[in-house]
Amino acid sequence: MARVGRAYDCDVLVIGGGIVGLSTAYAIGRTAPGTRVTVLEKEPGPARHQTGRNSGVIHSGIYYRPGSLKARYAVRGAAEMVKFCAEYGIAHAVTGKLIVATAREELPRLHALAQRGRENGLTVRELGTAQTAAYEPEVEGLAALHVAATGICDFAGVARQLAEASGAEIRYGARVVRVDRRPDRGVAVRTAAGDVVRGRVLVNCAGLHCDTVARLTGDDPGMRIVPFRGEYYELARPGLVRGLVYPVPDPAFPFLGVHLTRGVDGGVHVGPNAVPASAREGYDRRTVRPRELAATLAWPGSWRLAGRHWRYGAGELHRSLSKPAFTRAVRRLLPAVTEDDLIPAPAGVRAQAVLRDGTLADDFLIRETPRAVHVLNAPSPAATASLPIGREVARRALAALAEAHR
Q1: E strand intervals along 248-326
Q2: What is the pLDDT of residue 5?
Q3: How far apart are CA 90 and CA 158, in angstroms?
């Protein structure tokens, strides 16, 4: 590939046109007008992966460790997301949600979750059985939390608006295949079409492929993306659920369990189940990419993760393969549901960073190297938190740009 020259196509080159990459471009445009930003997205439009394939929930921030980036950015981002949607006329609603304990052993965890929510600055109400029924008549539980700050929105619509308002040049159908990074000069990126784009600073927001892009840049990310497919159903009788209903999560795992979420279209999503995918974009069981699967299996953290959480994983796999088992999981919250009520819906894939020791990265992970900023772990609640995340990534990119000008 041609050497990086002095003629730059842009100041900041962003790889990835999901909500985090577009929020970064938007934040740079607002913070430093006149900064030239180019976004390269391999798909023909924005938000084709994690952003456009989730349940559309604006998370409150109740689940996350106080002081963590997830906690701070989700709480701040939820309020900002509602304001952004209102400003641009994007479909949204602040609905609140219930987190429901269905077994006695869940009650201490439910109370601890209430405490965590208050530490994160949220208004949390603890409810008994009768109060829970007043919110959701068809839901059964021993106790529940009501979290008022939770909402829903059209995240794909948000991404489109961020793209339009960013002022950036956005190139779709631009899959990055090579990166030449020179700390004393900048970066040159080649796309699959043979185009070369030169920038002073690189921002990696490639989501499911962020570790690959980091390695193309010459950096060791110290993690690998292990893709988990989130399998959803649509509820044939959406009237059974008024809003958003969640189980008490297992604190040892980053997934929230099978939940019920009424979307902006009025339909109710049920799920997701979470199972390892055989491809970064493995949205169904038939999609297997041997090279990607081999890379996952070659990562020591994958085996350590499996050894640590095999029992949880076996339950998820059982529910994936057995609709009756999935239905039983739903009926813990919603006893009236039947197998016939569950209609298969499009799946999503979570880009989960796994460290070498098998630890699941439990916070957003942003790393800087010469002339580059890498976003290496930004699964849920990244869509909710995308505006604060974008500002933080923009801050780091602009600092790198200022350093480059010295």
Answers
A1: 259-262, 268-276
A2: 43
A3: 7
Point out the residues of the chain with pLDDT beneath 70: 1-6, 252-254
Which of 99, 103, 104, 135 lies closest to 117 in space, CA to CA?
A: 99
User: According to the model, what pLDDT value does residue 100 have?
Assistant: 98
With contact defined as beta carbons under 8 Å apart, do 120 and 63 qualify? no
Pair of tokens at residue 107: 């009650």
- For 200, the enclosing helix (H) or strand (E) is strand 196-204
pLDDT, one tens digit per residue, over 296-308 is 999 999 999 999 8
Render the burial of 57-76: b for 16+ CB within 10 Å, e for the rest. bbbbbbbbeeeebbbbbbbb
Token pair 């609140």 in the structure block, residue = 96
Closest to 212 (Cα-Cα) out of 242, 247, 176, 182:
176
- Structure tokens, 74: 């989700």
| Reported pTM | 0.95
Q: CA–CA separation, 346 vs 156, rounded Å?
A: 15
> Does the bond joining 66 to the residue before it have cis omega, within 30 degrees of 0?
no
